[in-house]
Amino acid sequence: MLFFCPEASMSFAPPWFRTPAVLFCLAPALVQGAVQAPVQDGELAERLYRSGERAYAAKSYKEALDTWGQLLQSVPGSEFAPRALLELARHQVEVERKPEAAMPYLDRMKAEYIRAPEAADGLLLRGILLARQARRPADLKDAMAEFNRVLDLFPDSPAVPGARLRLGRAWRDQGQWGRALRQFVEVFRARPDAAEAPRAMLEAAETMDLLGDLPGCLRMLQQLRDRAPKSPEALDAAWRIAVRVKHRLQKPPFNNEGAWPSGRTKWLKTPTLLALASEGDLLLYQNDLDRAFRLHHGDLVPVGPAATGVKALVVPPTGDLWLLSKAGLLRGQDPALVPLGGLGAITGAALDRWGALWVADAKTPALTVFSSDGASRTVASPTANALASLPSGGVIIAADADRKLLFLDADGQPRTVVPYGKDLPASFRYVIALASDGAGQVAVLVDGGDFGEGVMVLGPDGAVLRQATFKSLGINGRITSLALDRSGGLVLCDRRNDLLIRLN
Hints:
The chain is an alpha+beta fold. The protein has a domain at 255-503: Neuraminidase, CATH 2.120.10. The chain has 13 helices and 23 strands. The protein has helices at 15-34, 41-57, 61-74, 81-94, 99-112, 118-133, 141-153, 160-173, 177-190, 197-210, 214-227, 232-250, 470-473; strands at residues 256-260, 271-276, 282-286, 291-296, 299-303, 310-314, 322-325, 328-331, 346-351, 357-361, 366-370, 376-380, 386-389, 395-399, 404-408, 414-419, 430-436, 442-447, 454-458, 464-469, 479-484, 490-494, 499-503. The strands form six sheets. It has a four-stranded antiparallel sheet, with no helix packed on it. It has a four-stranded antiparallel sheet with strand order 2-3-4-5, with no helix packed on it. The protein has a four-stranded antiparallel sheet with strand order 9-10-11-12, with no helix packed on it. A hairpin with a 5-residue loop joins strand 15 (404-408) and strand 16 (414-419). The longest helix is centred in the first third of the chain and has 20 residues, at 15-34. The termini are far apart. The model is unreliable at 1-37 (pLDDT under 50).
């Protein structure tokens, strides 16, 4: 900056006076540079927020959290304050794994910053956390209210597809399948490019199947594959189409492919239980080794700790394997046993959508349900000789004493009852094991009566889709468990001959 100074331009000033005069004229500029204007609140808030971002990106979490906390304390009225609150809440959920610690931040955002654009994401996250806390359909009320607030207050927000998707799930979990379908469809109709669109299409297809619309379900699954061919949901849709077409439309007679995989015989050590992992690998328990294994690309990989006398395998959404025995429950890699209330004759187990473990016991004339907090309750039912989960959120049980298969809803109430022998050329007497494929089909391993040893596959309505006796298939062994694979086949566990058999 230039300053005009008459004294400096005076030619008659002596030389020894000119230099001080110049410095004197420059003094205002020097003073102005030395004394800076105070930082405005908006600028300070942005600097604090960006500083926290930098620290967080470098995984200096404490520095980032302290900086954002200082922002909230110093300039709570800044537009960056709700952003900081949202980041603090997300950190507690995603990094610390302490969702309860996120709620105070989200509560403050809802109370003080409801007009801010970030409030949409805050309400969505708050609803998600409330839904996770739910243990029964009635508990979803508060979560649904948050999702509806996102739709009502922020109709143009990027958070809307996520809110609709979760609102649809909440309606589905309450058995309101029509309302659930409308929400799922609206996600990809209104925002076809949203990240949630493929998931919404998949859940819409599955809801159509629950409503009995198989053609609509298959069309939706194919549309998903066409619109988002590289998405994980498209891969999921492929096997869901395959198993439904094979079991429900084609219904070919079972063909015994023999020892599986690759004709292997006498390669196991008394296999007794089978289950399917979330990504489609076969899980099996070998009684003589007291271990569970994953069959991956033809190789057996040990899963979880050693456990004696396991009677049921359960695969939670996390992908871990749970083992149930008379001694208790082993979850994943945790070697600590969780007591099961003295149940000593376990015949089956399944996890419901609420994280509760349903256990059938041959000596208990009821089902025992263990919630995630360790509490237990009983659900009235006949004594169950086998149990498996259903995609509707309920379970199917076999009651040999009553000679019935019962499809139970999420509250344990019978939705469909199938007498033993219905739709078969002859009746059977016992159900040895049950298995479901997550797409509505249930496989039943039976014995006794005129039908004898054999298998059948039921549809969601309890109708027999495919069936065969072991005699007709040329199978001689002691089959103790079975699993439906993702290509429409059925894998049998033969403990007598230490092998697996696949039916196609």
